[in-house]
Design a protein that fits this description.
2,3-Dihydroxybiphenyl 1,2-Dioxygenase, domain 1; 39% strand; globular
Amino acid sequence: MIRKIAHIGVAVQNLNDAEKFYTDVLSLNVFDREQHGELKASFLPVGDTRIELLQSTTAEGVISKFIEKKGPGIHHIAYEVEDIEKTLAHLQSKGVQLIDKQPRKGAHNSKVAFINPKSSFGILVELVEPERK
């Protein structure tokens, strides 16, 4: 079901400042940048996984609200799965509360879905099925 940790999502107030820390201080490289709606993201590889820096472009955005409530920091852990539909069906059969019952489009043309933190001991979990090539 789960192959590996795909990425760790980090909520930041300023993407440029966060990138500067990760590149200048930690010597990581920005692999990619994307924007989906109000969300701007940068991806920095660390071994076989990535750090995903996330910034809202509006005060009403999901990351802005997260930072307002909890402060900047780890927002979610994303796990790569082979078949997201099958994984979601399995989780539903086990009584897991899902935020997304059907996958939606994510970064890098992937399919993503989120598990409610109430079912995962307070951690927002993202499931990611990479684009098949």
